[in-house]
Design brief:
Largest sheet: 4 strands, antiparallel
Number of helices: 5
Structural class: alpha+beta
Strand order of the largest sheet: 3-4-5-6
Strand content: 15-25%
Distance between the termini: 30 Å
Number of strands: 6
Oligomer: single chain
Shape: flat
Helix content: 40-55%
Order of helices and strands: EEHEEHHHHEE
Length: 207
């Protein structure tokens, strides 16, 4: 239902925002409309409950982490907020992982591209078509005008000693920043100490 459209009694809104008298809408379409909206409403309720459950889980885990640190001076988990807790019998565990999305500042990216273009222009035949294609693909923009950070970072692995290339790579490194960060909570179980860990999936499609 559109937020801007008022649905009068006896009418239904179609996919183009038009109000259609109910008696002109096929009965099967009316039943489908009711079913789909009810199922989506249930899904949104479940999503909201999962979000609240995740917040509660993170709250309890971080509270335990703080307790352990305060009482014993112990640091639990790994770097950047990662955390792994295993039950006393070693059969179940909870893990918190911090996923970060990395981006590169545009001005430093443009500076790097200018230096790289300068190198390629001077090297001409020495650079080879493969390197030119690699650089071209790395700086290719998508439909929203953004480059692939992964492709740009791939240039850092090239062993090129030219001073200008090295300055370009340093510009890329200096321009790296964490664009967003998200916490993931995962649950695992196993039948015994020698058994393989199996993830307890909370993903709807995997159930």
């Amino acid at each position: 239902m559109s937020d801007q459209t008022t649905i009068h009694e006896g009418y239904m809104e179609d996919s183009q925002g038009r109000l259609v008298p109910v008696n002109l809408v096929p009965e099967l379409d009316q039943l489908k409309d009711t079913l789909v909206k009810e199922l989506v409403s249930q899904a949104k309720t479940a999503q909201s409950a999962l979000k609240e459950h995740k917040l509660n889980l993170l709250g309890e885990l971080h509270a335990f982490q703080a307790l352990a640190h305060e009482k014993y001076g112990a640091k639990l988990g790994g770097a950047k907020g990662n955390l792994s807790l295993t039950s006393y019998d070693g059969r179940v565990r909870v893990q918190v992982a911090i996923g970060e999305s990395v981006a590169i500042d545009d001005e430093k990216l443009q500076a790097a591209k200018a230096l790289i273009d300068e190198c390629l222009k001077e090297w001409t035949s020495e650079s080879g078509p493969e390197l030119r294609a690699l650089v071209h693909d790395a700086f290719r923009v998508d439909s929203e005008g953004r480059v692939s950070t992964r492709s740009i970072l791939g240039l850092l692995r090239l062993e090129i000693t030219d001073e200008r290339w090295q300055r370009a790579m340093q510009a890329i490194r200096d321009g790296l920043r964490v664009d967003s960060s998200k916490s993931y909570v995962r649950f695992h179980q196993r039948t015994g100490p020698e058994s393989k860990w199996e993830q307890i999936s909370l993903e709807f499609a995997a159930l």
